[in-house]
Amino acid sequence: QKEVEQDPGPLSVPEGAIVSLNCTYSNSAFQYFMWYRQYSRKGPELLMYTYSSGNKEDGRFTAQVDKSSKYISLFIRDSQPSDSATYLCAILINDYKLSFGAGTTVTVRA
Amino acid sequence: DSGVTQTPKHLITATGQRVTLRCSPRSGDLSVYWYQQSLDQGLQFLIQYYNGEERAKGNILERFSAQQFPDLHSELNLSSLELGDSALYFCASSVDIGQGQETQYFGPGTRLLVL
Fold first, then answer.
1. Do A45 and B97 lie within an 8 Å CB cutoff?
2. I need a labelling partner for B108 at 20 to 30 A (CA). Which of A45, A46, B35, B52 fits?
3. Which pLDDT tens digit goes with each residue over A46-62?
């Protein structure tokens, strides 16, 4: 069983829409959850970081962790064409290793 | 710009050959991580070094090896290359040993094509 699963999409939304991205994970002991954004031909960059459960908000971005369901989400409000990218969820495994989801490719149409 | 540099940006080589990828971490970062990103496998952790010593291994093949030098730059050596090794190779760095809330900063990657 994979440590983290993510629907690769792709996802296409009109400008201004809410983008909803999700991942599921296998081990309820995992504590650290991240979302990375990767533009085409670039390295991933950290967007959001959440410890344990609950919500975290940063501008137009909200990250949620539901530990009872082993489900993590990223919401992007008022989406912009510049948000078009691949979004990867990641979970910290065994302190050192980051395990990434497959990534969801998002296109925001102007 | 993350502050992590990788060279070369692109590399084209033939099967059976050996290549070396180079990474310079952000100033002050002691940990270096190597990742492989391919279409079918996604982003996979290969190996981590902390202050010159190997700290953690992931899905790294025996044909691959890495090291971190006293100036903290790192090299990933790929030998006996196969077509399936064609991928993007990323280096990331973090300040410390990688516990919990450590942020990993990724470089721009090296795109390897094995023909």
1. no
2. B52
3. 998 888 888 899 999 99
